[in-house]
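# nightly structure sweep
# worker-07 picked up a monomer target from the shared queue
# config: single-sequence mode, recycle default, output format = structure tokens
# input follows
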Amino acid sequence: MVDDNPSADNGFINFRASVNRRRRDDETAFRIRSAVWPALFSGFHRSVLRSLDGLRADQAYFRPSQDANHIAWLAWHLSRWQDYLLARVLQEPEAWVAAGWYKQFGLDAKRTGMGDTTDQVGAFKPPLALLAQYVEAVHAETV
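# output follows
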């Protein structure tokens, strides 16, 4: 039988369950931030920086075919997804939006690269210094 008029006790139980759920969420977020994310993304971060290191713009934006992604887009897309996923898991704002990176890149705040057309990939040519700064900012948020 469902009680349509919950008593104060039921309200307290629901409140307590909510507090306990939040505590578990906070503990999970702490474990993710302190152990899981750094292990997963430190290697990725080094690889991205190595890929960008010393590249000229023509190399960073080179696409071996019309359907291929260039190195700069891949570095952004991977960092953007790292930012997006971390924000979802920890229930925090994305650096992309909170720090205004999307404005500096001249892109939509919701854009992650998922579903980008070949024209969008080809048109994506931010200054490499800006791209490196975003990669670093996301990594700093992650670890």
